[in-house]
Amino acid sequence: MAKKDQKSTGTFKRLMKLLLGFFPKLLPLIIVLIVVNAILGALPSIFQQKVISVMEKAWDKGWSWDTASPKVMKYVLTLGGIYVVALIVTFLYNQLLAVFTQGALDKFRVAMFEHMESLPIRYFDTNQRGDIMSHYTNDVDAMRQMISQSFPQLLVSLITVATILCIMMYYSVLMGLVIIVGAVITIFITKKIGGKSAVYFINQQKAIGKTEGVIEEMINGQKVIKVFNHEDDSQASFDAANNELYEAAYKANYYSNTLMPILNNVNYLVYVFVAVAGGLFLELGVKNISVSGLPFSLAVVVPFLGMCRQFAGSIQQISPQINSVVMGIAGARRVFALMDEEPEVDDGYVELVNAKNVNGKLIECDEKTGIWAWKHYHKETDTTTYTPLKGDVRFYDVDFAYKPDKMILHNITLYGKPGQKIAFVGATGAGKTTITNLINRFYDIADGKIRYDDININKIKKSSLRRSLGIVLQDTVLFTGTVMENIRYGNLDASDDDCIKAAKLAGADSFIRKLPNGYDTVLSGDGSNLSQGQCQLLAIARAAVADPPVMILDEATSSIDTRTEQIVSKGMDRLMNGRTVFVIAHRLSTVKNSNVIIVLDHGSIIERGTHQELIVAKGQYYQLYTGAFELE
User: Can you point out the beta strands (E) in 323-446?
Assistant: First the structure.
């Protein structure tokens, strides 16, 4: 428990440090206004004591309103002025708090998203998307409630308690001790019951993220669920996650809701106890111990009853605010967990730059010439060289594992020269897609070397490396926007004519023009208003508009029927002309014209050669091609 408390304290300190960094002037001003508001709210008891004291003296001397009224009106008007100031202060700090809260959350979301964009693919492979999205919704909302409501109210309650305690000790130490005994009982009950609810509020926050992850997964897989009649199992999976959330939320609110009635009754008992104690002190003529030096009288006892209610009410308000603060800290902890994820390592220093040829020598330039070069600074000789971008990719004895104890690729050696088409075939899980993931450095190799235009791939900046690659993934991803915008995603500088040219190259132009608004048709969701084959044609057009020297086609025609494939093949041939192309395909008819076909099995290369050479060899490729052996 001590470790959890220490962890929560560390999270809170970090949160406050960040908030102060976001608004170095606004946050201190808001805190000052909250403190002033709390102190002003505790002052009426002083004026109540003074008014009663004036009335007592007037009564002792023979009642006369004319004698008492000037002082009473003075105190009343002063108190009214204090209430007006308190109203202005409350209005100001609430307005400033709204600006501060929304501004801070905006900065948090921006910081989270920027950091998320820097995370490696591995993070998204190992975390549910629904849980990641929960950071931006539930966790941030928990922080919002803590920053805008719970923490200010908690601060007001604490300052009010401290102020009233000082006032009580000023007027009567004995009466103050009576109230403190009641406060100790209240705090003990709060700690016992409130501590349990805090644990379950933290579990609730975690369970919400898990439940959203399940929901997101089920929504994405709804077609598959219906095809395989998996509704009951899906319901069971959701029920399990939802029951876990229910248990955490039920217990959190059970303890929280139980606490308030108990505290209410304890406060009533304390109030009665204070009234009885005050009456006894008056009856017995007990000597008052106080800073003020006032004797026990109604002017002391009556204001104490009001202070008792205010004191108890402020302590009672602390408990629900603590629960909200605990939830906010739990949300902040999950947000910080995302922000603390190690970003993708990029220690490359070789950049891809625009270049032009001057007197047979490449030099860097700002304008787009259509010529790209690798800018390579050599620290040893303090010189910079420019190597033309060709697209020569070579693997030397490469080993790779997603997990250290489970090797996926073994001793992979291959090369792809400019203009060559290299095809990978093999059973699912053989390592075909993994090889292409290593080319664009979604993952880093465990051993061996990968060289790109004779430069170690680790030395190339990832942004430059990926800019030089055109990739059509097996799972097509389109974004909400027009068809034109989705094609231009491959090259944001491309003109409309460039995008249309790329669409024609991919064989997508004819179906695009049949859409309701042609290239201006807005795609919703993930291209849900298009067929899967049409989505893939757009992905190919997106790669074409990038005009890279290296193309990676991961099952690029897997969702295209045979007739459409014939239409696309000519465009694909034009797209691949003069480029280094790596093709992954189960449909072996699409790789017959490859310069080299590499057959993989369990992460190792077992055969390589042209289609004809592999047929003559009558190995595994021959068996695959003739149907004597199936991919498994």
Answer: 351-358, 361-364, 372-378, 383-388, 393-403, 406-416, 421-426
Structural domain contains residue 462: yes
- Number of domains comprising the chain: 3
Is position 482 within any domain?
yes
Q: Compute CA 546 distance to the chain's CA centroid, rounded to the nearest angstrom.
A: 30
Q: What CA–CA distance (Å, rounded) separates 351 from 374? A: 6
Q: Which helix (H) or strand (E) holds 472?
A: strand 469-472
Burial class (CB in 10 A: 0-12, 13-18, 19+), 439: buried
Interstrand relation of 596-601 and 421-426 (parallel, antiparallel or unpaired): parallel
For residue 141, the enclosing domain spans 104-339
Whether 581 contacts 499, CB under 8 Å: no
Same domain, 309 and 434: no
Relative to beta strand 406-416, strand 351-358 is unpaired
Give the pLDDT confidence of 174-229 residue by residue, as tens digits: 888 888 887 788 777 777 766 667 677 778 877 887 888 788 778 777 767 776 67
Three-state DSSP class for 370? coil
Are the CB atoms for 517 and 436 separated by under 8 Å?
no
The pLDDT of residue 565: 66
β-strand 550-554 against 596-601: which pairing, if any? unpaired
Q: Is 326 in the same domain as 204? A: yes
Structure tokens at 46: 């002083």
Q: Are strands 550-554 and 469-472 parallel, antiparallel or unpaired?
A: parallel
111 within a domain of the structure (yes/no): yes
Strand ranges of the sheet holding 550-554, from the earlier edge strand across to the other edge: 469-472, 550-554, 580-584, 421-426, 596-601, 604-609
Pick from 492, 564, 571: nearest CA to 534: 564
Using DSSP bridges, classify how beta strands 361-364 and 447-452 pair: parallel, antiparallel or unpaired.
unpaired
CB 611, CB 624: distance < 8 Å: no
Residue 420: φ, ψ to 5°? -90, 150
Give yes or no: residues 207 and 311 share one domain: yes
Q: Rounded CA gap, 152 and 31, in Å?
A: 8
The predicted-structure confidence for 291-302, as pLDDT tens digits, reads as follows 777 777 777 778
pTM: 0.72
Q: Any idea what the CATH number is for the domain that residue 462 is in?
A: 3.40.50.300
Q: Would you call 48 helix, strand, or coil by DSSP?
A: helix
Model pLDDT for residues 379-399, shown as the tens digit of each residue: 888 889 999 999 999 999 999
